[in-house]
Each structure stands twice: as C-alpha cells, then as structure tokens.
Request: fold
Amino acid sequence: MEEKSEHIKELRRKAMKLPLHPGVYLMHDKTGTIIYVGKAKALKNRVSQYFGSPKNHPAKVRRMVSQVDWFEVILCDSEFEALVLECSLIKQYRPKYNILLKDDKGYHYIRISPGDWPRITEAKQVLDDGASYVGPYVSSWAVRQSIDEARKIFQLPSCNRRFPQEIGKGRPCLNYFIKQCSAPCRGKITAAEYQEQVRQALDFLEGGSAAAVRKMTEEMNEAAENLEFERAARLRDRLSAVRKMTDQQKVVASSVPEQDVIAMVQNDSERCFEVFRFQNGRLCDRETFFVKEGGTDREARSGFLQQYYGIRDRVPPRVALDDAPEDQELLGQWLSQKAGRKVQIHVPQKGEQKQLVSMCRTNAAEQLAQRFGRNTGRETAALDELARLLGLEKPPVYLEAYDISNLGGSENVAGMVVFENGRPLKSAYRKFKIKTVVGQDDYGSMREVITRRLMEYRKDPDSGEGFGRLPDCILLDGGKGHVAAVEPLVREMGFSIPVFGMVKDDKHRTRAIAADGGEVAIQSNRSAFTLIGAIQEEVHRYAIGFHRQQRSKTNISSTLTSIEGVGITRARSLLKHFGTISAIRRASTEELRAAPGMTRPAAEKVYRALHEDEFEGES
Reply:
C-alpha cells in the first residue's frame, strides 16, 4: 500500500512539472495499454488533479488512477486542437475508462421473397436464396417501423401462412376485418393484384411517402381515365391510408428538417443516452446507449457527443440537448469542422423543441427502468429530474422525509417516511415522541428527531436496514427555517447528507423546495413536482395519524384510568376487547367481568363510574 502511495506521489510530482498549456494526456497501465485519454486547457492543472486527494474523485476515476503506471502528454496550439486530437485518439485506441460507444449496429435490409406471393420482411444479411434485397440501412428500428407501416397501408399479410398452398384453408384474421390485410388466405385478391400491392409498398419504402403519393396519384388518375374504376378506388383508399399515416407521424415530427435530439437520464450506477434522429422533419431512427456513471453530467454529455459523432460520418446541422455539455462552444466548432458546414448545439427552453427533448428524456428513463427493473420509467424520470433540480450528483434512490405534528404544543410527535426508487418503503417508516422539547417548537422538535435518527445509525452503521442505512437526501416538511435549523446539525454530527425543505402554499400544496440560501421552484418540472407532492402528503398523513393516535390514548387514559382500580394496561385491555368507550358503557357487569384482566370488583367500579348519572338519579 505504501509503495502504491509513493507511486501516486511520484506521478503528481511529474504532473506538477507540466506546462500550463493546452494539450492531450494519455494514461497507461503497466502493460503500456492506454486506459484513458483526456484534453486540458492547462495540462499541469488538469493532470495533477488526478493524483491529488482521492476524496475529490468519483469511484470510476479512483479506479482509473489506481491502474495508471505512467502518462504522456501531447502539446497543442489551442484547446480546440486538443479536442480534435482527443476525439481522434479515443476513436483509435478505445480506452476502457473513456465512455465507450461501439459502432456495432451493423446493417439491415428489406427482403422481398421470391414467387407469385412475395413477402416483405426484415433481414440482417443478404443471402443467395433467390430473394430481392433493398438496402443496406443502418437502423433496424427504422426498417421495422417502415415495414410495419407499409404492411398496414398496402394491406399486406403479416402472418406465417404460405401462399398459394393455404389459400381457402382457414378463416381470415382480425387484420382483414380492420382493413389492414387484403386476406389472400381467403382468395379475396388475385396474384396480380397482390403483386401490384407489393410493388406500391416497395415504392413507398424506397421513395418515402411523398414520392409514393405522387406515383399513386398518377396511377389513380390514369385508371379513372381508362374507366378502371375498381382499381382507381383501391388506389384512392391507399392514398388515404398514406396521408393518414403521415398525419399520425406529425405527432413525432420536427419543424427543423434535419437534427438529432439527445437526452440523458441516470440512476445510481448508470447513465442512459437516448438519440432521436430526424430527417425531412420526421423521426427516422432512435438509438439507446448505456454508459457507466462517472464524472459530472456536463462531462458525461461532452464525452458522449465526442464518442457518438467520432464514430459516425453523418453529423446533422443541429443537435438539441436536454442540458448543456462541457465545452459546448468547442464541440460546436469540432462538429462543424467534421460536417464541413455550421453545426449548432442547442439547449431548447420552450416550445416544440423543448417538448421533443422532454419526450426523448422520457424514453431514456423508460429504457433505463426496463434495463434494471427496479422502478417504472416515470419514477426513474422523476428521480433524475429531482437530482438536476437539487444539484445532486446522483438521483436520490433512498429518501427520508420528516414532519412534526402537535396541537398547541401538546402531544408533540414526528413521523418519518421513506421512499426508495420513488416508491414508499413502509417497512422503514418510523414514529417519534418528542422528549426534550416542551411546547410548540417545530425547529427544536425537528432537531431532536434528526439527532436521534443519526445517533441510531451510529449504533449499527452500514447494516443496510432501518436506521442502519443513511438516506441519499433528507426532506423536511417546512421552509428555509427548518433547513437552517437542521442542516448545520447534520454537518456537526459528521454527515454529508443533503437537507431540503418542502414548502407549501396557502392551500397546503407543494410549491417549492427550500435549499440552503433560497428556494427552488418545481411547478414547471412535472415529474419532480408529482414525486415531492406525494412524499409531502404521505409524511403529513403519517405524522398526523400518529398524533391522533396519541391524543386518542390520552382521551382513553382520562376516561378509563380515572376510575379506581383501572390502570393504563387494564384500560387498553378493555378497549381492545370492546372496541370503543361506547361499547364498554353498554356492557353489563358480567360482560365487563369476562374481559381479559378484569376482576369482579374492578368490573363493578367501571360499570358504576360509567353509569354515574343513573346512580345519582336513584339516590
């Protein structure tokens, strides 16, 4: 261990001798393999940071530094030149600690089977099987979407029946009745008519909807002039289907003809990048990438853009992001140079573009949720959005929320609820009776509760259950005053847990989140707003429920324990046996005697005390 520490110190001494000059640095392991490539505006400052205190680095960087045997640098004339060189070196060496995106999508084809009844399907390679192939296409998603659209528009079968062998041997499927199949299985169409449908579908797939519409319009007019009214009617229906499909696609369309929309969502271990590609204003492809968590969000976005466009020839004139990357201006210059024209990196704030980015982020959240299966896409999106709003490094997977409840300072209690992965974890809920604070002092009560909770953690640290697990974030039902009262206490006890307040409006609804020094508005962030609102309602319900329970016990105590011979244990036993005070009052002496823990003298005293008015009337 000492040898390793000395090696890191030696690397730091070498780094401190580097110039304050732009350049690229390459980290090597003991075998000489390049494990990381980075750029720097000032090499000395950037490289020396790696070999400083490990507490300042995330886990991924610490692992990388532990494997560095030596490093080398390449000086550049500008930071932009360093960025271009970094991208080139990453593409060349594929270092394990850079964000790795493999260009392994492969090619995909549209296959048209041979024979009088051809089928249109997707294929991953061209075979010598007598079939015709259209392509290649980079995106399998785009191929599947296009084939599905063509089948519906031109009423081509998607079943596994063989023609002409199975014509007339079975009932048509549902697609025939909803007019998405022409039912060759029932002989509803001739081979020539079927082949015409396939030809028109291929025109649609190869030329797009606009070209297909033009060609079918010409054919329809020609058929009408030749008095081929049935054929003209079929073409008219297909034209209508194409236009209807085009209208549906406008829901996922962009006024910008060609652009990429990219959004990122993360959980506690990975990030998911979703890419929507638009051409001719239409969503033509989507891609999903998972990368191991590491570095800040801005660094991750910058690294992703370098990797993604570094291994692709196509760069659109516009890239819309959900948030700004590191070195946005430099990246824009690099992409412009690579594309040979101006490329704009844009972070939309409103309108259609903002909606497209939000949709892209929602899909990224769903992909991440499906990958891990711990929560839904909505919950993943809410936690990611909350982390962005609060400036947290990671989404708060394990949240604790607290609320104080009392009535004029009496029966002072607190409730603690826990949300894990955006869902209530009721087994971890806890109740507190305030012991040291007298009267109505919410700040003092909250300080007592948080102190007791953290002291319980110290008794059994890192057990991973109940109080033995620290939260990623503490939420207090209150504003800046509550945060100011609790946050210094948490730090004094040696914990670095973020503390925030949940601020309510006049109608007791969530309005904002109180942070150290101000408030963060959350109404415009729907996912986070919904999650915080649910947490605030749940902790309020839990705390006030406990408070009412304590008041109920106090009332019972004052009613039953005031009777001679009845203590709190016997009072609870009676209430448990009969259910309510009214039921106890209606019971006879013998029924009271039959209750657990009761004696005849005690039963007679209870009966007489609860029917005191009757005895007074007799006397």
Remarks:
- Confidence is low (pLDDT under 50) at residues 247-251.
